[in-house]
Amino acid sequence: MTTEVVPLLEGRELLQLYAAPTGATPALRGVDVTVTGGRISAIIGPSGSGKSTLLAVLALRERPTGGELRHRGVLVSGLSRRRLHHLRRREIGWVAQRPTHSLFPQLTAREQIEQTARLRGVRCDVDAALAEVDLTARATARPSVLSGGEQQRLAVAAAAVGAPALLIADEPTAELDDESAALVLRLFRARAGQGSAVVLATHDVRAVTAADTVLRLRHGVLSGTHDTGQDRTATIDGLGRLQLPEEAIPLFPGGRVVVTVTGGHVELHRPRDRA
């Protein structure tokens, strides 16, 4: 007898609209995404593609305008604000793109870890948490006197306290040197090994290389997903439109493709190749 594994998060046809002077502007356009524990997922794409918006929705910081988002099988839209607040505090570690937005300005590095553990209701070896990101010597320093890289590492360490079910970080290695980035990525891998689902939005090839799954966003649309080291998986939306991986698009100049269906196989050809 096998037990079905329920994804931590499952989004279907996620839509997110923001008000603009010219009318509602879509940041997400029908995104399907599944997040499971024990894996690192990297969301990539050009600036403005919707990466940060998708992170905010997955972290339950924003309710999607449309579509369905389920947390452990429960529809998020049916949860009260109090329940959402409880889930964010207990189960989700969040690292903002600007690390100071993830830290308490009045607390020392040691107190940041202690406070997060207290809010999350877990026990934590504070010394080990600081050592994991090489901040032992800065334990009594407040964010204002830490370098940008130190702030980033502290924000990641605090978010990772207690191996939360979901650990989400927006560009966590963008401003880090190779040594610091390696520390942060090693921490993410350790938390995934403890069962956390780790989701990163990134432009950094170091973070992409460390991921188990890569999701590509373009103009608010999920253009493809793939497990690292394996074949790419393209997305077909509800209207039957195929989102090719970004690197495949130049193979079809003019945006036209000939589709041949033979038995159970589908082939894509450039128009001139079938002339």
Number of helices: 7
Q: Indicate the low-confidence ranges by residue numbers.
A: none
Q: Which H/E pattern describes the elements?
A: EEEHEEHEHHHEHEHEEEEEEE
CATH class of the largest domain: Alpha Beta
- According to DSSP, the number of beta strands is 15
What is the CATH superfamily of the largest domain? P-loop containing nucleotide triphosphate hydrolases
The helix-and-strand class reads alpha/beta
By CATH, the architecture of the largest domain is named: 3-Layer(aba) Sandwich
Please state roughly what percent of the residues sit in beta strands, choosing from under 5%, 5-15%, 15-25%, 25-35%, 35-45% or over 45%: 25-35%
Q: Termini distance?
A: 54 Å
Numbering strands along the chain, what is their spatial order in the largest sheet?
A: 6-7-8-3-9-10-11
User: Kindly state the mean pLDDT as a whole number?
Assistant: 89
**What share of residues is helical?**
25-40%
Rg is 20 Å
Shape: globular
